[in-house]
Amino acid sequence: MSQNTPQDPSLGSVRPSLTDLAIRFGTDKWGGDGNFQHWYTPHYERHLGHLRDEEFMLLEIGIGGYASPGQGGASLRMWKEFFPRAQIVGLDIQDKEFVREPRIHPHRGSQDDPSVIEQIVAEHGRPTVVVDDGSHNPQHIRATFGFLFPLLADGGIYAIEDTQTSYWPAFGGSPDLQDRTKTMGLVKDLLDGLNWEEWRPDGAAPTYTDAHVVAIHAYHNLVIIEKGENRENGNRTPVR
User: Which GO terms fall under molecular function for this chain's record (predicted)?
Assistant: First the structure.
């Protein structure tokens, strides 16, 4: 257990870290097999720890287990344990109804279908946290971000996992680092958008993401995006 794990004042005991819970429930957000290893949980705890005792909705795209009956749901259980007052919603292309329990709500559908996302928001409200651990197809990731990020609550966090597939043709990616149509192309465009006030012509309206992405944190195969108001009346220099 992490030495710096915070104390729970109501229990007077050490609370498990997100990494502890990932190991307990067997999610690959920490560790994995020889081919696929992820070390995401410390990053998540750094960016989401302030929500630990808050009431909110977390939406994770991808429940796990593929089409195997009775497989999946480990990360949903991890989130539920870490956030004792949150509603945990999962979306998967396969039927994962077996993971349903108090505060865990599975939905079936494709992540790039706006009607599925709209149904989830209508039933559970706007998410404060989104974790895209779905198909890992760059086109799906970009489409999902396009219609889901505007539905994210103000001050929310949007995470995209396994961004290595942006470079892998087998997943629809490309090793061309200048290809802006893939997942990392989206991230690079968002980085430029952070500074929209400095390069867009005077009077030009920002895009939605220009105006509402306030921070982008890039880690190995993981990107975490913060939502807020990105209007600082920045340092304008004449464009020549």
Answer: methyltransferase activity
Concatenating the DSSP letter of every residue in 110-168 gives: -TT-HHHHHHHHHHH---SEEEE-S---HHHHHHHHHHHGGGSPTT-EEEEE-GGGGG-
**Residue 165 sits in a domain of what CATH number?**
3.40.50.150
Q: Which residue in the list 38, 43, 136, 212 is annotated as catalytic?
A: 136
Range of the domain at 146: 12-227
For strands 222-227 and 157-161, give the pairing.
Answer: antiparallel
What value does the mean pLDDT take over residues 59-85? 95
Instruction: Please give the pLDDT value at position 8.
Output: 47
Answer whether residue 233 is part of any domain. no
DSSP state of 35: S
Q: Is 140 a catalytic residue?
A: no
Over residues 18-29, mean pLDDT: 96
Residue 10's pLDDT band (boundaries 50, 70, 90)? Answer: very low
Q: Higher pLDDT residue, 59 or 236? A: 59
Q: Please give the Cα distance from 1 to 62 (Å, whole number).
A: 27
Residue with tokens 């043709």: 169
**pLDDT tens per residue across span 104-120:** 999 999 999 999 999 99
| Residue 236: inside a domain | no
pTM of the model: 0.89
Dist. CA 125–CA 240, nearest whole Å:
46
**Integer Rg of the chain from CA:** 19
Distance CA 97, CA 70 (A): 9
